[in-house]
Each structure stands twice: as structure tokens, then as C-alpha cells.
Amino acid sequence: MLRLQHVSKLFNPGTADEKIALVGANLDMKAGDFVTVIGSNGAGKSTLMNLISGVYRPDTGDIHIDGQPVNTVSEHRRSRWVGRVFQDPMAGTAPRMTIEENLAMASLRGQHRGLMFAVNRKKRQLFQSELEHLGIGLEHRMNAKVGLLSGGERQALSLLMATFTNPQILLLDEHTAALDPSRAELITRLTERIVREKKLTTLMVTHNMEQAIRLGNRLIMMDKGKIILDVKENRKQDLSVAGLLGEFERISGHTLADDRMVLG
Amino acid sequence: MIDSLFGAVQSGLIYALMALGVYITFRILDFPDLTADGSFTTGGAIGTVMIAHGYSPWLSIIAAFAGGALAGACTGLLHTKGKINGLLSGILMMIALYSINMRILGSPNVSILDQDTLFTFMSPWILIPVMVLFIKLAMDAFLHTDLGLALRATGDNAKMIRSFGANTDTTTILGIALSNGLVALSGALISQQTGFADITSGIGIIVIGLASVIIGEAILGARTVFWATLSVIVGSVVYRIVVALALRVEFLEVSDIKIITAAIVILALVIPSARRATRQKRLAQRRSRELSVAPSKPSVGGTADA
């Protein structure tokens, strides 16, 4: 479904600020894979996400989505295949527009936007049932402006919007990191359920070790622009936080340095 | 007195089209677009010269709209594809339009007092309200279409709508084009109402547009698109009435209008944020007093604000 071959990305090449964000990264995800990503500060996790979604173009290497090469496909065209939820709950929704308007925009992912009314009765019913399914009461507030929602509610809506059209790839970039623990737990549960129900191929960056181990069928660990550890399904169940930290030290030769890391 | 008030309402309604244009850039796209100062004159120039050459007044306002939209599209291209700062893109276009407007007009001032205009055949009291209402409703409808939503989201959260596959460069260009089309249409109608077009007629028009948008929001609010566009129209009419009344004050000259307009906009921009800051501070002071008075026994687990 998603394949990265020898993908590298450098920032400010040849200057004093040169930063190697990703070197020779290889990743092969099958349809329905749910991969969690952990790693130290500046390991290249966000760069990896931005390369897949097309914010950046790789300096070398190839990216294939669903068998198609997408290296030269721009961000807004690539969005047809890639759904994203960002860390900032404000990032995934339009605050001055209503819940149903936000959903209407999400329902047209990658499609032509013309002069048809964005919300009609049929769509409204669809949105309503999808919101009911979230189970946080948003279905009663479809005409409320999204800016009035709490961070957790906005992130739940972002998640629904990102997954609404069953994108080929779902990218979750620390999407629970900015929330308080109980709301983060709610979003985590929703994520797990939606990904399972829709069988989405998902890549999730997280700072929560326990979450990284608990969710998904595969775990990768990154350090200094490289994928240093790839734990497949059968071994993933046996992981523990302590074991994972030890493994990281053994391979990278230093401790996992991440000021935001939550050990769980 | 009554006459001048009626006149104010009428021109307020025509200027409301310009204010609706400013609303699109200023409020929806969050893009302060100075092109308006040039495109207002462009509209007046195209409309007037076409009438002077014997074209139908209807055709002339359609051409004026198209001319303004073209100018707006250029500003949008400069900003999105040329990556030029938004304010500068508008200023560049405004300056360029001065020369273009002069070319269209041929002289600084063209009169069509002896020609037939839209208002020759129909009372402005029917034509203008119907036209403004029609454009307002058409704009409301457009802003609720899929494309309209993408346009609104471009000013609200561009990153988000891009992640859903909309090209924000295209929506920005479209929005600025529509905006300046409306501004130019307003300019053409004003010159048909007054019977002449003048190279300086657009100077300061953007500030008048901003004043109308802000006054309207202060009176009616902007809860939904329907109310927002209605409030812009009301704001434009109220602005004209205020100006008409101000002109009756003995001490004020006609040229003082611009500083009054600037003052309205400045006050409208400063007061809300200043008020918010004082309210925040008072609230914080009250809360900290409450907290320092409250007995400092350790709370037993959980809810801090119970």
C-alpha cells in the first residue's frame, strides 16, 4: 500500500545548519497495517509524515502509494490518498465554520469542488449518523461553529474528517499529545475503533511508549533520520516499555532522549 | 435634510456592493486587499466610457465587473504564484491600475450626464435595492456551495483545506477576483448615478469598505453568512448616513470625511481588543483575590474548581 525506497531528505544542504532529517529510509506497509512510530527528538518522524503527505519532496528515493509513484505529486493532489490528523487540535478543522460544513469539506476529499450546495438533506443525515457514532454528542450541535468546541472535541472531529472517505493512508502525527490524559485516552480509543472498522492503513507517531506498544500491529523506532528497529506483529505482543528502551540503547548507543516522552 | 438622507441611503446601497467585495477579502480570505482603490475607478471608467460610446448600460456594468475581476485575479496571481506579500501585491496592482484607468478614461474626468444610464429608465429606488438584494442572496448561496466552502476555509484554515485536496492558490485568486469584480461593479453604478467618472474616485475606497464591514458587524453581528452579508449592507448605509450628517456640521469640510472614516476604522479595531484585555485583567484580578482569600487546606483529590 505504501512503499518508501531509500528515501532521504536534507534541510539547508551544504550550510552550517545542514540537517539530515531522513537517510535511506525503507518502509513497506501492507494494506491494513497499523504502524506506530517512536523515536528521539529530531529522529525524522515528522519529516517522514511530511514526505508521505507531500509537504516535502524527497531528495533521493521513491515513494509509492497503492503501487503508484507519487514523488512529483503535489500535496493537495496527494490528499486524495492521504488523510492526516495533526498534533494541534486547531489544525484539522476550520473554526469559523460549522461542524456540518467542516464535514462537507472533508467528504469531498480530493474531488472537484463545484457550485452544488455543500450540505443537503442526504449529506446531513450521513454526517449525523457518523457523528453519533463518535459518541460525544456532536450530532446535536451540527450548526455550531467548530471554534466553540473543546480541544478534545475538535480532535475527535478532525479524526472523523480525516477518515471520512476511507483514505488509502492515514497519518496521525502525535494527535493526542496536546490533550489532557482523559481526552487523549478518548481520542486513542476512537482512533483504534475507526482504524479497525475501516481497515485503514495507518502510520501513527506517538510520544507515549505504552500507547505505541498497545496500538497497531507493527512498531518502528527511529533515530537520527534512520529507521533502527522494526517490530512485526508476532513479536510486538511481547514488547514492554523497559524492553523497548533497552533495545533502543543497544542499537543506537545512547539513551532515548525525548523531553516529551511518556513512558505510560 | 431629508433629501440628503435619502441620497445617503441610495449611495449607501450602491457602495454596499463594494463593501461586500471588501468583506470577501478582508473577512473571508483574511487578506487586506488594496487593489480596491484602483479597481473601483476601473469599474467607473469602463462603465462610463462604454456608455459614452453608446453601449448598453447593462453591458457596461457587466464589463466593469469583468474588468475588476481581472484586476483582482492579477493581485491574486502576484500573491500566490509570485509569492509577493499580500499588502504589497495590492499596492502594486493599485498603482498599475492608475495608469490603466487613465488610458481607459482618456482624461481625468469623463461625463455621461447627457447619456442614458440604467437609472434613466428605472427608478433607482427599485433598481438599486433589487440589485443589491439579488447580489447579496447570490453571494450567500455561493458561499454555501462546495467551492464557496473551500473559499471560506482558505481564509479560516488553509492548511486544513489543502489537506483535503483544495488548491488554496486557486481559491485565493478566485476570492480576490470576485471581490474586485464587486468593487468595480459598485464603481460603475456610482458613476452612472452621479453622471461622471473621475480618476480619483477610488482613493480611500478600501477604508470606506472596511468601515462599512466593521460598522455593520458592530450593529448586527456576523453569526452566519446570511447575517454577515446583511450587516455589511447595513454598515454601508449607516456609514453614508453618518457622513451626510457630519457634513451638516458647520465646522467640518468635505475633505474631512477621510479622517473621520479612518478614525471610525481605527476605533473599531482598537476598542474590541482593548476591551477584551481589560476584561481579562479584571477577571484575573478577581480570581486571584478569591484564591488568596480561600482557606488553603489541601484539596482532597481531583476537581480543582468544584
TrEMBL record, chain A:
Its main location: membrane. Pfam families: ABC_tran. InterPro entries: AAA+_ATPase, ABC_transporter-like_ATP-bd, ABC_transporter-like_CS, ABC_transporter_ATP-bind, P-loop_NTPase. PROSITE patterns: ABC_TRANSPORTER_1, ABC_TRANSPORTER_2. It is a peripheral membrane protein. GO terms for molecular function: ATP binding. Keywords: ATP-binding, Cell membrane, Membrane, Nucleotide-binding, Transport. It is found in: Cell membrane. Residues 2-249 form the ABC transporter domain. Gene3D superfamilies: P-loop containing nucleotide triphosphate hydrolases. PANTHER family: NITRATE ABC TRANSPORTER ATP-BINDING PROTEIN, TAURINE IMPORT ATP-BINDING PROTEIN-RELATED. This is ABC transport system ATP-binding protein. It comes from Paenibacillus shirakamiensis.
UniProtKB/TrEMBL annotation, chain B:
The keyword Calcium does not apply. Its main location: membrane. InterPro entries: ABC_transp_permease. Residues 286-306 are annotated as: Disordered. It is a multi-pass membrane protein. Keywords: Cell membrane, Membrane, Transmembrane, Transmembrane helix. Pfam families: BPD_transp_2. The chain crosses the membrane at residues 12-29, 58-78, 85-105, 125-151, 172-190, 202-220, 225-247, 259-278. It is found in: Cell membrane. The keyword Hydrolase does not apply. It comes from Paenibacillus shirakamiensis. This is ABC transport system permease protein.
